[in-house]
Amino acid sequence: MAAADTVTPVAAGDRTAEEIAADARLQRRTALWSLAAAMVLVVLKLGTGLLTGSLALVSAGIESSGDVIAAFLTLLAIRLAIKPADGDHNYGHRRAENIAALGEAAIVFVGGLIIGFEAVRLLIEGGHDVDASWYVFVVIGLALVIDVSRIVISLRAARRWESAAFRSNAFNFAGDLAGSVAVLIGLALVASGVQQGDAIAALIVALIIFVAAGRLTFENVRALMDFAPEDQRTAITAAILEAAPHAELRRLRLREVGGQVFADVTLGVSPATTVAADHETADRVEAAIRAAVPSADVVVHAEPQMSGADLREQVLATALKDPDVRDAHDIAIYTDRGTAIVALHLKLDADSSLRDAHTAAERVEAQIAALRPGVEAVHTHLEPIEGPVALRPERARGGDADDLFATVVALLGAEPLECDLRETDVGPVLFLTVATDAAAGLLAAHDLASELERDLRIAHPRLADVVVHTEPGPG
């Protein structure tokens, strides 16, 4: 059976070029603001720390200098990440944000090592002179205000654009905030006479840096390793089972790139369904996944589910898989004490040679015989696939039509619902619609149509074809 594949457009495909460009400008403006704020903090903290001899402020300044580099990397990553997918980067360029975030983690980690080493050294050797004047607390207060504003802006940007780079910035700035609070407490201790308070504050800042760097590294390495969040997997699985309850979920592969989820789904469907039906199932699954995870880019592949299918479905699917078979019908299965003989009609291209048609039939017969141990024999009837038959412009002759209508009435005992005789290039064709007992089963209706077709062909040998449609009558 042919596979049904469907692909959804990425989220950006649903937006205009103007909206994408506006978002890109806003992202760059946000990153530039973070860069400028980090530079201001470096000047404030380092300058004040060197002036007053405060290791805690110097360490906070070093951390902020790392943020300058980190913000610069974020700006570069955003400029690269907003580029659309291309032939070399099928999933886009947003992995650049994860790489930039790892760079940020490495930078702040090195800064933390330097700060931690110096803080431990001062604690071992004893305290050092620190000028805890009033203006130092003003600088720290200003730094706290800037840190809070940076965290709020970065978190909003991370949520709006599902950006790993902005999210990592928010973590860094939260570390800055905690560090500034530690510096404030340390300098307050110094002002109260505890000279080692500054070194203790610097050590706390170093520990905060290590925690932030570890978290950044963990999250972004996990993203680069294509970690699939369990909550998204659970939501998508539930959506698939609800949208296609009769299909078998054979494989679900997820990857997240810069906040966008890519879902690769393989479904096992009934082997007797048509390609159009499989495609409709794939469409339903795709829509259900996007309802559960709006940012998802989905590929759904449907393939025959041979396990659990009855023998007839397996025979039909096996026959239609052959590249030379255009159609298969009239499948009959004859069983006797656990064994089966299978018979079916195969339609191939009309211009096929008998040798090629026979080779295809043997191929199909062998594959059907291998389906189950109890298949004793397989017999095929070869037919050419029908091409279109041209209708002639003239209607059937009045006498022939009248005679045929009289025969139909005699056979039915009543007038048909429709009796349309048409001339074609292969001879007259009768399209007949008759009413049957509304309570009758399909088998009885089929028997009636078959008998009508047989009797009409006997009574009117010129008929090239008889197409009998049955429908329930009144009552």
From TrEMBL:
Give every Cation efflux protein cytoplasmic domain span: 229-304, 311-384
Q: Does the keyword Transcription apply?
A: no
Transmembrane regions: 31-51, 99-120, 132-153, 173-194, 200-218
Q: Does the keyword Disulfide bond apply?
A: no
Main location per UniProt? Answer: membrane
User: What is the membrane topology here?
Assistant: Multi-pass membrane protein
Q: Sorted alphabetically, which NCBIfam families does this protein's record hold?
A: CDF
Q: Which Pfam families match?
A: Cation_efflux (PF01545), ZT_dimer (PF16916)
**What UniProt keywords apply to this chain's record, in alphabetical order?**
Membrane, Transmembrane, Transmembrane helix, Transport
Where is this protein found? Membrane
> What is the name of this protein?
Unannotated protein
One GO cellular component term of this record is: membrane
* Residue ranges annotated for the Cation efflux protein transmembrane domain, each copy included: 33-225
Q: Which organism is it from?
A: freshwater metagenome
